[in-house]
Design goal:
By secondary structure, the chain is of the alpha+beta class. The protein contains seven helices and twelve strands. The protein is elongated.
């Protein structure tokens, strides 16, 4: 978890494991005092609030929040102090699982000319091999998403002449399209007036965006998550303008 200067230090014991966007109820602990902090659904039902008020009248700075019962083990860890010090959640977020939560739309923007230079199939291809590998896992994810009626679009912004990485990815893209992705390509030199985000991203249902950063040679570094409406709106606008200019995969040839 990225730590900013002067930001309070808390251990994230866990978030709601069934939250569709991993941005919901959470439990934190102040490691210095041991005080637990809870974020849940704000209770607004006047009947419930009146019932609680009879038992324990609230102060002006207090509120009532609801956490789902499935979070009891996480709450128990926070209250008893049995979680691991320095914890930042109950587990890593799996991007494929996150994408599967999409209900209407998935958008993917790729802006780099180099990706994963040590991928075995890419290394094999550069050495004269066929560069093929088992992609059934990802293609299965795409198929299952498309079968649910989710529109899945991918735009690739590339340089010309294309890099070896781009040529290798282009070779594999027919399978993406067959599985259900709509893929388009845009050459930078044809659209220098467009503003392009500095990092690749996935946008899920216009509600959650996942930016991916890499090192200089294209090696994956980490993901950054945001549900900020302004960030999502600006990113979506950039994508749509790129999409309008880009060429559908079926019509885009690489010599």
């Amino acid at each position: 978890m990225e730590q900013h200067e002067h930001e309070p230090v808390f251990d994230l014991v866990g978030i709601d494991p069934d939250s569709v966007d991993n941005r919901c109820c959470g439990v934190w602990v102040d490691p210095e005092t041991g005080d637990p902090y809870f974020r849940g659904k704000i209770v607004t039902d006047p009947r419930i609030l009146a019932r609680f008020e009879r038992d324990a009248p609230a102060s002006a700075d207090e509120g009532v929040f609801r956490l789902p019962a499935r979070m009891r083990p996480i709450i128990a860890e926070a209250v008893t102090g049995t979680y691991e010090p320095g914890r930042i959640g109950h587990g890593d977020i799996d991007l494929d699982d996150l994408l599967k939560t999409a209900r209407t739309s998935l958008i993917h923007l790729e802006t780099r000319d180099t990706y994963d230079p040590d991928h075995p199939a890419y290394v094999d291809w550069k050495a004269g091999g066929d560069g093929l590998y088992d992609r059934s896992g990802w293609l299965g994810v795409v198929s299952s998403i498309a079968e649910r009626g989710v529109r899945m679009r991918r735009s690739r912004v590339i340089s010309s002449p294309p890099t070896d990485t781009t040529r290798w990815m282009h070779m594999h893209t027919d399978a993406n399209v067959e599985a259900g992705e709509d893929v388009r390509w845009l050459v930078r030199d044809t659209a220098p007036d467009l503003l392009v985000p500095v990092a690749d991203f996935w946008l899920i249902d216009h509600r959650l965006i996942v930016f991916s950063t890499t090192t200089g040679d294209g090696t994956f570094l980490r993901d950054h998550y945001s549900n900020d409406p302004d960030v999502i709106a600006r990113s979506l606008l950039a994508f749509e303008r790129i999409w309008e200019r880009a060429t559908p995969h079926i019509d885009f040839k690489i010599a």
